[in-house]
Amino acid sequence: MEQPLGQHISPEEHIAYALTVFGKVQGVNFRAHARHTALQLGLIGFVRNQTDGSVHAWVQGPYAQVRSFLEWAKTGPAESNVTDTHITFHQPEPHHTEFVVLPDADPV
User: Fold this and answer.
1) Is 31 a catalytic residue?
2) Measuring CA to CA, which residue among 21, 93, 18, 88 is closest to residue 58?
3) Which residue of 31, 52, 78, 99 has the smallest Cβ count within 10 Å?
4) Owning domain of residue 32
């Protein structure tokens, strides 16, 4: 999992990660579980289905809570079968104010 090089991150520091989750992650309530988990952890961002069958999410908040969400996403809800996750570090974006389920991505 990528994080800023040469920086120590305190558990309270606000950070953001984008992640894409692959496997059996659509049709198993992954997005609803992701929203529930994010809200329990006090995170903001979004989650949405992608056209390739993956799920994409943006999560931001305190480092310790974001890390907990990322660990949850590696397995997801019991009905899912996560085979891979792609996770990248980002700077928090101020326009996110809550955690929402977005409509499915449009086919290209």
Assistant:
1) yes
2) 18
3) 78
4) 14-97
